[in-house]
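Long-time lurker. I teach an intro course on protein structure, and each term I like to show students one example going from raw sequence to a predicted 3D structure in token notation. This year I'd like something fresh instead of my usual example. Would anyone be willing to generate the tokens for the chain below so I can use it in lecture? Attribution to the forum is fine with me.
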Amino acid sequence: HTAHQLEVSPLECLVFEDSFNGVIAAKAARMKVIAIPEPLSYPQTRFDIADIKLKNLSEFNTLHWETLNS
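-- Reply from a regular --
Happy to contribute to a lecture. Here you go:
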């Protein structure tokens, strides 16, 4: 819905998400997803469906960006 409102393709969207349901929704919309789950949930393998899983937003760097755009 948001991609439509922004008039962009979901394939051109990058989502930062902290909830598993949000990760599922973004992947279902064919968006790239970076999961940043709460610390107690980080070890859960269910977040591995995200394109990238980070412990916090400050870990995001140029290499991640390049990986997503390759």
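Some talking points for your students: The mean pLDDT is 95. The CA atoms of residues 7 and 40 lie 36 Å apart.
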